[in-house]
Amino acid sequence: MPSALMTKADIDGFFRTLSERMPAPETELxxxxxxxxxxxxxxxxxxxxxxxxxxxxxxxxxxxxxxKMAELGEETIRDHIKTxxxxxxxxxxxxxLSQMLVAHHGGEVPRDRDALEALPGVGRKTANVxxxxxxxxxxMAVDTHIFRLGNRTGMAPGKTPRAVEDGLMKRVPRxxxxxxxxxxxxxxxxxxxxxxxDCPTCPVAQFCxxxxxxx
Length: 215
Known about the structure:
Blueprint: H1 8-21, H2 34-43, H3 49-62, H4 66-72, H5 74-81, H6 87-105, H7 113-117, H8 124-133, H9 144-152, H10 161-171, H11 177-190
Helix pairs in contact: 2-8, 4-6, 5-6, 9-10, 9-11
């Protein structure tokens, strides 16, 4: 059974409570500029942030911009990220997107969704993360955690990530949107977990419409 829909007041209280506990949430990926953020997010698909950070530590010391990464080449990139899932495809994508940034954008990461999504390995979710974290755009990058929370809490139910994204963008009060996706990701990662949400310790349980709360 789907959860009942949260009210706008519930949603406001949900984010106000999370903001009081964590005023400025941040991604757990380690990066130093928009380019290293872009690469880290591309590498994070079907991988943990911890695993990505271990792999990129040495890689970013060698190449922290598009020109250096393009010069490094696919083979060397692959050697650095082979502990991450899908490393062959990801190495190819990182090498190619670096070349494209140099050729078409002066080596800079574009602040434009269409331009970002034209890069190899960059889909809507990755573009949303980069636009939000690097450029301060109020976007909603729907990963598995946010998809689950959108449905479980009743905040923005939807059958697809895009439906949940659109619902959240419409229903989350604008003053919470800048940090909303980080609050949701972290809450899903550490409290509202997939198999067994930790409802007894949840600071926002009073706002949530999930019927099967754990005790």
